[in-house]
Structure formats: structure tokens, C-alpha cells
Amino acid sequence: MSTALRETRSTCPYCGVGCGVIIESQGTQITGVRGDPDHPANFGRLCSKGSTLHLTAAPAVTQHARLLFPMRRATRGAEPRPVSWNEAMSEATERFAQVIAEHGPDAVGFYLSGQLLTEDYYVFNKLAKGLIGTNNVDTNSRLCMSSAVAGYKATLGADAPPACYDDLAHARTLFITGSNTAYAHPILFRRIEDAKRANPALRMIVVDPRRTDTAAAADLHLQLLPGSDVALYHGLLHLMLWDGLVDTAYIAAHTTGFDALKARVREYTPRETSRLTGVPEDRIVQAAAWFAGLDEPGAGAPVAARTPTLSLYCQGLNQSASGTAKNAALINLHLATGQIGKPGAGPFSLTGQPNAMGGREVGGLSNLLSAHRDLANPGHRAEVARLWGVDDVPAAPGKSAVDMFRAAADGQIKALWIACTNPAQSMPDQALVREAMARCEFVVVQEAFATTATTPYADLLLPATTWGEKEGTVTNSERRISRVRPAVPAPGQARNDWHIATEFAQRLETRLRCGRPSLFDYPTPESVWIEHRESTRGRDLDITGLSYARLEAEGPQQWPLPEGAATGRARLYEDGVFPTADGRARFFDTPFEPVAEPRDVRYPFSLNTGRLRDQWHGMSRTGTLGRLFGQVPEPTVDLHPQELQRLGLQPGDLVHVTSRRGSIVLPAAADDGIAPAQAFIAMHWGEEFLSGRSARGVPLAGVNALTTPRYCPRSMQPELKHCAVKLLKA
Ligand code: SF4
């Protein structure tokens, strides 16, 4: 490779804002990174994580943290030894083929990641559902966005965020709920600050049990009790009905199901809503008026004169045992007030991971199929089978994340393939997940980093490329597809994820489909993407007008962008027509359900989890860089000062934090933004920083030693945002 200085346009691999980056490189080394001034997600800005990406690709990091060669363990617990790619792939093929032959296709499972590129995701999904014949494909997007998916589909008819970043500049009210945007989506928060500077009348309501940095910047903070979101939204709708703030013409013309919801919210009076949520009545009244587009309660204004409201929401709604209900109850408010399909208005889920959207587009969850098709729909299954050139796609839903590891723990799943994710740290009820991997007969871990908590459970470790080395596409929160490009060659023998999946699929199909033409004739990631593009023809996310060449020439584009379209669509449902059978959006009538594991006498604290500003996920990348520990150098359990006093603790004292599933020890810290009887621990810390044990003695790491696997019955997303704990001075 030339040693001349080179610049390569790509995308930040961290959060769903999807910022464009320009990677500076020389020879095999990434030497710098800066924001891409032409990328419409960030216009040149980067946050603390994005702007230090090049330092996490330094040689010292690569040498010590990266997985560089295929490795095999002769026995569990043994040191892994390097093997050739040929040996590794032969063994993987042999073991998977054997399990499938002896126990059937549902005895294997694939657990993937919202960090994978769309092309990687596509191959894995087709490999499992098309070739092997199992729907046991799920991803860490199940822990991230599956409630948003279910909420959109239940109300608007398709998993399509209707708004865009530009709507920030048109909104009069921002309703930020279940999102610490300032930390989780920092560059989007910069755009909110810009919008506020340009339009001082812009007002911000933040709904959060904690007074986060986002809440501290709000005009109105609704500090609700954990998990009481649905009660709050129903209470807002009750007030909107009482005060005549709903848009009756919009409801009549574009929706169904309002009468049932109207009856449902009758009991959510301001007093009752305040009792259920802990939010003072006057704040609920103020929020209802602002959301509906009025300046003050009772001010009155014709619908046409009301100002636009944009909701931004994330894991506070999604990571919940009633996640679908929370998402849908919020969307109910937009439909009832006509706050959708116009500039500055609409429900807008903020994607946690960089490509959870792309994964959803290819159907990379156990209940989905390509291009937003549903596994439960026989017509959709037939369409996908035809596209893939297979006889059929199995009808039975696969195991979602929690159930996949339960099935491995029960011995039903005997071979697991884990790619680009770290379930030994990131899944709830970590003890069960670790026991499941230990019991599984054969575990493949396809990873860029050798040091994750999951790698010790692997029989076979396959080295994958990562940011700066990979090629493909990702889709951000506003449906914008961006290119990801390699700036340097892969280190050691690392290979691209799509390539590893393709080679495995090709080897496996010689066993399962011998003599028939290959389903996986993919010489390049572009060839994978072209097949994915064809699968979207005529669907809500149609991108048949897009190509790698067009992305190269015109930059990132939003879907839908069908053949012949001049541009993608910035905003959806401007015509009031929804992708449902009758073209109408559906109100979602749901009761308020409290958290799955309420606090009680034995476990008297509500534990909340969330992000830090400068760390990402399990820290496999950001944890390699000292400067990213500047804001928060060590894990803490944050408590209201009154609670510290009541427990006889000083800041810095060590505390046992124990739930029904495990226990960890960490220092206490005072934070008066946390309500009494609540506690907060950041999600990132792994075993290097925060180790513990389960009740059965399994070694654990981080906050997911404590969290509950109880999940939403519709989205199957677990309630990572709440469990009951007790605290004892260590
Ligand atoms: Fe990367 Fe998100 Fe920061 Fe943008 S906001 S630079 S995508 S981490």
C-alpha cells in the first residue's frame, strides 16, 4: 500500500446519529479523523467518541486488544491456539452440519449485532432463514430498538421513523422522552442547541426519572416514576380531550380506533395521572398544552394555528416490559393532535446503534423478513423464498435474544454463532447467558476484539474487521443510508463479516444443497447490497433508485428512494396515507402496566441504567483510550444525597448492590438528580472494572449482573431500564 497521505469518507461506528467522518491514513495506519462537512447528519461535527476514533485504531491497541488470527480451543477453558482460516471454516461447517443433521435446523442459532453493516446482516439472515431453515437469528438490536419497531408497526403500519433531523429546525416544542440525548446522541443534541439559538421560542419538555444533562436544559422536566410513561401519555390525552386540543378532523380522516382509546383514558384525570407518575398536576397540564401546539393551557387556537411538536425518544421507552405500549401510547398523542407528517412534527425514535435500522431493513430479527416483511405473513414468506431462490422460509418464529440463550441453557440450541457483540456483558440476567454458552456444544465468536467477556466461551474465534477496515452501508435514525469505506487493510488475518458469513454459507450449502447452484455468489459487498435493494422493490423502504455509484456521487440518501425518484423522502405520511390495509393509522388502546419487578421491602430501590457521555457499549473500543475516562473514571452507584445519609454512606464508600439475580460491589456517589428510592449505574463497565457473582456463584461483570430478563410480550425487548435492588455498605 502507498505511504502517501490518504483521506477516506466513511461513517462513525458508534451511535445512530450516523455522523460522517473523514479518515486520514498513511500506509497501513489510520492517523487522524475529522467530521465530514458534507455529511447531512453532522456537517463536520464529531463528539468525544467520534473525534477519537483514530486513537482507538492505534498500533498499540491493535496489538493488544484485537483478535488477529482464527483461534481454536481444544477443550473448554484451554488457551486458544491459532489455526488457518481453512481449518477454522472446516470445523465450523462440520460442527454446524452435524448438529443440524442430528437435531434439526432449530438446534442452531445466530446472535448478531446492530454494529454490523447492512451487507453483513443480509448474508447472515439469508444463511439462517434461507439455507439452514431456522429463524433463530436475533441481534443486540432486540435490546435496543425492537419496541420502537413494534410501536411503529402497531400504529403507523410500518417500521419507518416518519421525521428527520431537519425537523428540529421547524419544531416549536421538543418532547424528549426516555432519552438522555446530550449523552447518547451528542451531535443531535448540538443540533437541538443550534435550533434553540436560531429560534429562542423553541421549548423543550424532557420526561425522565433522572435530572440528566438533557433534563437540566429543559424548559419543563417531568420527573416521572420509573416505568409510568404510559400513564403519563394517557393523562396528556385525557387533558387534550377535556380541553378540546385534539384534531378531530385529522382523527376522522386518517385514523381508526379512537373511540376505544378515548374510553380508556377517561380515568386518567390529572389527579390520577399525578398519583401514578409522581409528576405534579400543573406540569402535566402545561405539557399537554405545549404538546398540542398551544403556548399556555386554555389559550385556545384553531388547529391550523397550532405549532409543531416533535418527539424524540430512545431506550427509556424501548427497554421496558411494556415497551411497545409506551411507544404506541406516545404515537397516539401525535395522531390525536395531527402532529405528524408536517415540518417539525412527528414521533421520531432515536436509534441506539449505528445500524440497527439497516438490520431491521434486511429483516435481521427472529420475527422479521427482508425489506420489512413479516415472518407471520405467508405471502411475505413466499416472496422472500422466491427472491432467495429457495423452496420456502420456515413459518415458526425463531428465538428472540433472551429466549435464544434460555434455549441454549436448556440444551435445545446446541450450536451458537455470535458476531460482533458481547452477550456475556450486555444481556440481562448475565448468569443465565454465561451458563447457556458454557452448556452449548459449539460456540463460534466472530469478533474484532480478543478481550470481550464473551471470547472465553468460544470454541472457535474468527477475527473480523472493524471501523476503518470495512466496506458497506449503514442507515441512521432518519432513514439515511451512508457508505462505510475502508481506509487501511485488515490487520493480521481479519476478514470482513459479510465475507466470513458468505464463506461459511458456501461451505455449508455443499452439505445441505449439494449440486444446486449457490445462493451465496457474492464477490463483493456491493453484490450483496444489490440483492438487498431488489428485495425492497415496491415496499415502504423501496431503494431501487439507489446505487453505490449514486451514494458515491450524491452522498448519503434517505429512503424511500424508488426507481426514477429525484431524491429520497425527508418526511413520511405528509399525505395522511399510512401503509396499512385501509391507509389509516391505528390508535393503540393499551392499559398502563407498572414495571415488571416493582421495588419491595426486600429490594427497596429502583435501579435505572444508561449511558455515559464518553463510553460506548461494553467499552471494547472506547475502553482502550485513557482520555475517555476523563469525565467518569470509575463505576459508581449514584444515589440521592438523602439516601446516602439514610444508609450511613459517604461518597466513595463501597456498596453491595444486589438484585434477585446477582450482586456487584462499587463506590457510592451523590447525585441530587436521582429521586429518592432510586439508583443509577452506567451500562458500560465490564469485568475489568466491576465484577460480581450470581446467587449460584457464576462470575459476573457490570450492571447486567443485576438486570431482569422480563420482556415486552410484543417486542420481546427486555426491561434493562429497571429492576429492584437492595444496597448494603460493603
Ligand atoms: Fe459518532 Fe454518535 Fe458521536 Fe456522531 S454523535 S460522532 S455518530 S458517537
TrEMBL record:
Residues 5-61 form the 4Fe-4S Mo/W bis-MGD-type domain. The keyword Acetylation does not apply. GO terms for biological process: cellular respiration; nitrate assimilation. One of its GO terms (molecular function) is 4 iron, 4 sulfur cluster binding. Its cofactor is [4Fe-4S] cluster; Mo-bis(molybdopterin guanine dinucleotide). One of its GO terms (cellular component) is membrane. Keywords: 4Fe-4S, Iron, Iron-sulfur, Metal-binding, Molybdenum, Nitrate assimilation, Oxidoreductase. Belongs to the prokaryotic molybdopterin-containing oxidoreductase family. NasA/NapA/NarB subfamily. This is Molybdopterin-dependent oxidoreductase.
